[in-house]
Write a structure and sequence with these properties.
Oligomer: single chain
Distance between the termini: 36 Å
Strand order of the largest sheet: 2-1-3-4-5
Radius of gyration: 14 Å
Structural class: alpha+beta
Helix content: 25-40%
Length: about 130
C-alpha cells in the first residue's frame, strides 16, 4: 500500500465529511479508530477504509467515525472503540478488514458486541 500524503488525507476527509457529519442527538454509534504510529504500521488505515466502506454500503448516517492516537496497547493494534447509546464502550484489538466488517455487522448493526475480538469493556463514553 502506498503512503498517503497530507493533501490526499485532507481530500479524503473533505469528501467524507458530509457523510459523517452528524447533528447532536442523531448519533446512534461512535467508532474511534486508533491511528497512532503503531496503529498505522499495524494496518489501521486498511481497517478505517473497510469500516467506512461498510458504513457507506449500509447507508447509515447515524454513525460517527473518529480517529485518535495510540491507545497504549501497541501490541494489540490496530484497535477501535465502539460506543452504542446506552451500552458501555467496547475496545477491540488485533483488527483487520474482515474483523472490522464482522464487528460492524454484529455490534453496530445488531447491537451485540463481538466478544471474540474484544479486549476490554467499559472506559470512556460520549453518551
Amino acid at each position: 500500500m502506498t503512503k498517503l500524503t497530507i493533501a490526499e488525507l485532507q481530500t479524503i476527509r473533505d469528501q467524507n465529511k458530509a457523510t459523517f457529519t452528524l447533528r447532536k442527538g442523531e448519533c446512534k454509534a461512535k467508532v474511534t479508530v486508533h491511528m497512532g504510529t503503531c496503529g498505522i504500521a499495524a494496518g489501521a488505515r486498511n481497517v478505517m477504509t473497510a469500516l467506512m466502506n461498510e458504513i457507506a454500503l449500509a447507508g447509515r448516517e447515524d454513525i460517527l467515525v473518529k480517529t485518535t492516537g495510540c491507545g497504549g496497547l501497541c501490541s494489540r493494534e490496530p484497535m477501535a472503540v465502539i460506543e452504542l447509546e446506552g451500552q458501555p464502550p467496547v475496545i477491540y484489538g488485533d483488527l483487520n478488514e474482515e474483523k472490522i466488517k464482522e464487528i460492524f455487522r454484529e455490534h453496530i448493526l445488531s447491537g451485540n458486541p463481538a466478544g471474540k475480538y474484544a479486549i476490554a469493556l467499559g472506559g470512556e463514553t460520549i453518551f
